[in-house]
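Section 3.1: Structural characterization of target chains.
Under the original work plan, the team committed to producing a structural model for every single-chain target entering the pipeline before any wet-lab resources were allocated. The record below documents one such target. The sequence was received from the expression subgroup and is listed exactly as submitted; it comprises 491 residues.
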Amino acid sequence: MPELSGEQKLRIVLESIIRKVPKEEQCKKYGISEEEFLGWQDQLTKKGGQIFEPGFGSNTASRRPQVVQKKSPVAKVFLTISLLANIGLITMATVLFLEDANQPIETQVLSETVVPSDSPLHSAQPDTNFSALQPTTPEAEQSFIEPSREINDLLSSGSNAKGVQKNADLETLLAKPMELPVPQVIPPVDSLVDVSSEVSFLDKIYEGRHVVYILDVGNYVLQGEGAAERFEKMKDAVLSSIVTLSPNSYFNLVLYWNLRETSALGKTILKANRDNVKYAIDWITGLGSSLEDLKDNRNQFVPKELLYSKPLPGVVGPWFGLGVGITFDPDLIFILSGNTPAFPMAAVPKSHFNGLDLSQRSLLNGSSETQSAQPASLLSGLTRQTARKWLVSMEPPGSLPENVFEIEKIAIRRLGLSEEFAQAQSSVSIPWEKVFENFLSSLEVNSQMIPQTNFFLCMPPHIRWPNDLFNTASEFAESSKGVLMEDPKFP
């Protein structure tokens, strides 16, 4: 592995610190030893603060040692030969110049001859014939020209030879630059959002890594106008969120019904791996859309009797399901609830009313009256009349039958005022404020440790929770930085 630069070592150490990568994985990734990594990390810790000292980096260039390039033996030989050749040429030119200086005066160039003041040249007339002073014979002319031409040729040849030798020497002396090793590109350390800390639910992103889904599966979720379609959307919302969880997230699924019936996917919070997600999908899709399938399949996993902890007596309905979900210590809770107050009285054991300050006699009387009463007598005349007037005001003229009793039946069926709902309403009224107080007192965590709780009320048309139940749920959702939403918009 090529030697790493200082910048690469710094990036490797910073990547491990910022991304929280263990040193073993970092060393394996870049092919370095743990001793080298620890040495770089110690060097950064001890000397990293020097970059903030005054004057750091100003004298770096002055302190940098000068690099002297050593010449190879071959280059030294060529340089010596070149110097000796140049010295020989200069010596030859000097000797020839001295010999030329010893020649007779008449062979010198007239332009370079110093003429005395009494020379006939100064007294000559303008038309004086200077050709008489020039050599007249071919031998004299040859001796006049030959020395200068010979010296020029020697100097010219010496200069050319020197230039050629110099160029050849430069090419041999200049060493070819070494190819620098290409460093491995280290990607920049960027602070990406950890996807395992995000949960998507109904096209909205929530922050959390541990999440619990609580789904209301009482018989009442399949009663009323559009109940089956609404229940399918509730299940799809939970499934869509579970399948998008990161494999590093944790979750659990809790189903609750009636007052104190519940079942969970596991005894503890589960990792969102492929197997656990598949169990949740099979459980939700297996609930079906009929009462028979719902009753058979909603308690096939861990029932409340086998859970490690369960809410205290006096905690019923959605607060019971929420209390079970909080025992898994999640960051986020999504609770999808239906018309909880319409639980079937005949299917609820009397022990579920413990802690609600309701006398056993009133429960027995209410139960006996409910069993002996007929469905037609469970609704008062005022309720029937109000339902009939509501339907007449909603529908266009001529679209309803002329019989008043038929109109009442349609109105009662459309409002979801079924036999079981009428029985529950006539038998007992749950003190939801008291239930909320019992729920708060049963929590084993302080207010700062309460997970963010989000309520989604999926109710039949024109039906709402009782005011005391709605207000307490809204108060709890707001205190936990969650939301309470009626009739959520399903995708």
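Residues 1-47 form one domain.
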